[in-house]
Amino acid sequence: MTSERYNPRAAEAFWQSRWDEAKLFNLEPSTSSSREKYYVLEMFPYPSGRIHMGHVRNYTMGDVIARYKRAKGFDVLHPMGWDAFGLPAENAAKKNNIHPKGWTYDNIAVMREQLQSMGFSLDWSREFATCDVDYYHQQQKLFLDFYDHDLIYRKKSRVNWDPVDQTVLANEQVIDGCGWRSGAPVEQRDLTQWFFKISNYSEELLSALDGLDRWPEKVRTMQRNWIGRSEGLKIRFEIEATSADAILTSSTLEVFTTRPDTLFGASFMALSPEHPLTTQLASHSPQIEEFVKECQRQGTSLAEIETAEKKGFDTGLRVKHPFVEGKSLPVYIANFVLMDYGTGAIFGCPAHDQRDMDFARKYGLEVTPVVLPPDQQEASFYLQDEAYIGEGLIINSDFLNGLSIEDAKNMVAIRLEKNLVNGVAQAERQINYRLRDWGLSRQRFWGCPIPFIHCDDCGTIPVPQNDLPVVLPDDIDLNQSGNPLEMHPTWGKVKCPNCGMSARRETDTMDTFVDSSWYFARFTDPKSETPTNRAVVDHWLPVDQYIGGIEHAILHLLYSRFFTRAMKITGHLELKEPFRGLFTQGMVVHETYRDNDGNWIAPAEIRIDETDGKRTATLLDSNQPVSIGAIEKMSKSKRNIVDPDDIISTYGADTARWFVLSDSPPDRDVIWSEAGVEGAHRFVQRIWRLVNGTANLGVSSSMANPLQYTKETAPEILVTTHKALANVDKMISELRFNSAIAQIHSLVNAQEQALRKLSQTSGEFEKATMLFCIKTTIQMFAPMMPHLAEECWKIFDNSKMVATMIWPEVDQELIVETSMVLPVQINGKKRGEVKVAAGAAKDDVEKAVLALDFVQAALSGKTPRKLIVVPQRIVNVVV
RNA sequence: GCCCCCUUGGCGAAAUUGGUAUACGCAGCAGACUUAAAAUCUGUAGGUCGAAAGACCGUGCCGGUUCAAGUCCGGCAGGGGGCACCA
Q1: Is the CB of residue A63 less than 8 Å from the CB of residue A120?
Q2: Which nt has its C1' nearest the CA of A665?
Q3: With bands split at pLDDT 50, 70 and 90, how would you rate the model's confidence at A181?
Q4: Model confidence over A150-163: pLDDT tens digits?
Q5: Measured CA distances, A636 to A546, A601, A642, A722, A795 (Å)
Q6: What is the model's pLDDT at position A866?
Q7: Does the ipTM surpass 0.90?
Q8: In DSSP terms, which residues pair with A552 in a beta bridge?
Q9: Looking at strand B, which nucleotides approach a protein CB closer than 7 A?
Q10: Which of the nucleotides lies closest to A741 (Cα–C1')?
């Protein structure tokens, strides 16, 4: 006999240690298993201090899949680790005057325990942190391999500098002109930086998106836009001879355009302030030099770019129009032309580009329309200050007149490709991408050291493999400004491995996104003495189901796709794409509360009352009223946080797991509410009563297995249970956890009804059926509430754990319907029902329907105009 | 500015090949048990009209296709997200 209420606190700790002792979730790094592999992975956490509800939701979803797939007979890999390098550790260390390492590992210890208290079926034997020397040692090896394969280079470039975090940021890490972490407006600086050649893979990364059919369309679209492919023409314009000839190193100017069809509408050329031609001219012209400096002072924040005026400087140079004899175009330097896209120079066609229009109006340049909108007459078509960018036919363009835009583009390309300037074709077709190379240098301490050495004589050379790892020093001074590695008295001083003379270590560390770009591969054999163990990594990858936040749609997921390609080239794995299935889960959100002074109040500090449907909140300690605000993402600043530890100690992990899965579809935000959690907990107790009630029927064990029945003798509850099982099976495999939970709710409702009709004196067959149904139900909710499931299972079977049981099988024959109730519509509106045999022929259904009283009445003796019978679905009588 | 997504009861949501709209849960209301409360159980529940049977209306708004539209098409409104001086 068991206690009346289920006590999660004792049960959860007990079963967690039982699973642990049995090493149920630990897998040897084997490839020889006869079972099919399944790799489920949730994005690993940054060890910020404590886990939050977002983690609970993310890891619960992953755990449901892992436990479900395990029950389905797969070898499931479900590892966990820590994305442990990064700036917060440095900031915290500075504040508390400790080493970032200590802060990080302390946090990991706390968070590991929190995750374990949730009962996740994780393989902790594979755990690592990216700040472990072993992990970043392997990463340094990878880095040198990439370098050897020409996937990494170093160059001086204009970079995004975060003045608060005192570091360089990748383009992907600049959001609206501000640093992604600090939020500070980003400045431009010229620094020598390390880059990954991700742009080598622009086309590959783009086209392979089509094959990722188990990724959300939204993420694929975002990546497509980010890679930003555009087809166009690179055109060489001849520079007219002038007195400046002597200072120019080239007699042509190259531009990239996607609109060669508008070439006859061109009225000016514009160079980027950083264009080589600009630089050459500036060296001989103080005015140009001054203009370039002015452009460089221009900010790069969102507001500054939006309000920035189009500014230009006429260089006096002119280029020849390729098709119009005697026509030439002025060459400007313009502040809106980007050096790192295309060729850093454009031709301006004001009539059909808004930016060019603004520029032309400002400097009094010609505006010639060359595309006629379909609804316009040539005579009446003229342009004010708005460029026309739509479809139409070409006008004012000599041999292009009357062509479509598409045909005109082609025609221009064909002509210019044949046209030779100084023996070179005047144009070639080109495809450009927005995607830039990934700048990975960070001027920070708490990251993976870049394994290179600078020697005055030998240049920048890799650290020899035997000298790896380059380990971060423990004795650092974080209170100085700048990079502590650079300030360290001895760490950077080394002998050149080439010539043996004094040399300096590279003091930049790697972007932490490097760490997370291959951790999923390392999990397959985390102790391997090479970055990966080929036999093992090729067996386990790709990740079958990856789960994480949408915020990584571009950064992490694009970098990982690049790394997979780079690791393939360097022989570390054989794989096209790292993540076969991707799921982006929604956030956990909560109401916000503020007191009369506008201070944010935490949910734990208030009481909610409800009268006449109106909810009011009051402070617990002072009874002061509190205003209820918008529902927002849980955040420290708004204090609308619910601590998972509090929920676990009050209701237990299973209640928390059930709740985060139950209300909302997993890709949408879930609103955390006290009432919702209590509802989930009530259901936990209901199951407990149902299971114990069934146990109290007293079933002789000999009756239970196997159950003897036929389709005719099967009790209704058995059919209901098998139907629910079929549905739950389908819904879990489609990650529709909220729907699976609704099914289980319905099933439990039905089973409570069924149990009520039984007693100890009922027939053994009825009791055994009930027992079978309950055991099946326990297995169904086990992936979501594993502790409760074990505790319930134990009542019937003390020898095995649910976690070791295989998933129950649906009796397909039992759930096939023998008769059906079809809705009957008259003129498309439901007016009644008809009961027919499941396989009834159309004729028979028609006869049955026409015999119905309400159909006869509607027809009043006439024949129906139409009679539509959709088998298994519906009947519609059109009168 | 460009691109994408969403809009269903008081609330979270189901309806996943165009075929019974509102399953399941939360909050509510009524009742049972109880000295009482909690816990638990039962019933009820889109709107309007009606005593009832029932009728009509109803998935953001307007229109279309269809025997049949939450679902498909066109337009509009509101909300959210991504990119953004990319030639």
Answers
A1: yes
A2: B13
A3: confident
A4: 999 999 877 778 88
A5: 27, 11, 10, 46, 43
A6: 87
A7: yes
A8: none
A9: 3-5, 11-16, 19-21, 23-28, 39-42, 55-56, 67-69, 81-87
A10: B24
